[in-house]
Amino acid sequence: MQKSIAIICAGGPAPGINTVISSVAKVFLRDGYRVLGVHYGYKGLFADETPVKEFDFHHADRIFSRGGSTLIMSRFKPKQEDFKTDFFRKNNVKLLVTIGGDDTASTANRLSKFLKISGLDTVNIHVPKTIDNDLPLPGRNPTFGFHSAKDEGVKIGHALYEDTRTTESWIILSSMGRSAGHLAFGIGTACHFPMIIVPEFFDKTIPTLDKIVNLMVSCILKRYLLGIHYGVIIISEGVFHALSQEEIEKSGIELTYDAHGHPELGNVSKAALFNKLLQAKLSQIGLEIKSRPNDIGYELRCCRPIGFDLTLCTLLGLGVHKLFNEGINGCIVSADAAGNISPVYLSDHEDENGKVKPRLLDTDSEIVKLYINNLDFIKEEDYPTALKIVENPEEYDFNKILNR
Hints:
The protein is of the alpha/beta class. Helices cover 40% and strands 15% of the residues. The chain has 16 helices and eleven strands. A seven-stranded mixed β-sheet has the order 3-2-1-4-5-10-11, sandwiched between helices. α8 links the parallel β7 and β8. α8 packs across α11 (270-285). The longest helix has 22 residues, at 146-167. The N and C termini lie far apart (63 Å).
């Protein structure tokens, strides 16, 4: 029977997925393999009738620079009892290429072990996709899709910042980033936003709604003292994810949860929530400041990949082929800044539950420290001037709020 490879995409979209699929398909077609794209991720892979798109060169060549994914994606998380070997045996699958983030990688890790125990010689190689940039790649190399999403977010961010300057107002901007603040930090620093709030900033204290609101007020108050009456505050949705259940209930929002147990934050406008809380606080202080909410995330996931990701995704696709030919299994394919391909083994990064730990923003790095020091916020030296507006300026001291 002719040998084949299978490709699935799981989780949420990211720019460059089609570039990876195209690159993998072309190089394996050249080697005489059938290339089977499976729709609906793991759900399709273990369905009674697997929904398959068989690739030829023309389809692979047509999609390589497009945004989105030619394979329909799903967040379905299979239980151990969902695993089965039918599709792999029927199609003589020698390689399963999984494209996804940390949840997809964790499931791929479990599946790889299952296939081995079942006596199959099917290799699994995972391609790290996420605009959150939170997979543990060596040298802090970026996950594909991150830079394209950031670039699109920066375009939006510049326009929003110009709007606040034009109208002398504030915008509270929420960005995607479930557990890490890379995207919000990247957009915020590129746009010179005066305040960036990411979950990693709370590494020395417990995040609460009051602390988040006080950080926003700290920035607005500081700029008010400087005679600057506008700005954009960007908040990673990860700070909401990091809140305790008690704090979430305090917000008054009833959340639904996905198959991986994560709050479905896309169903809730985080910016609207934080803006509402901010306006209540400003009213309490006696400051009449106009602010509006804005969420960005879904605008970024299916944009056309920029040149950086087109090159990276092509390299990763070719890297899958290289690692497969070297007999490597159960790994993430990684490319360093020099373009060298190496395997990252999922088992080296899993916790006691077999889940791959996310890579967080390094708050001890020089780049983060430099940018934090140049945000606008209340410090002790501002207390005398701030006392003219608020009775307790220390409540809005950035460093005291975060226990830094």
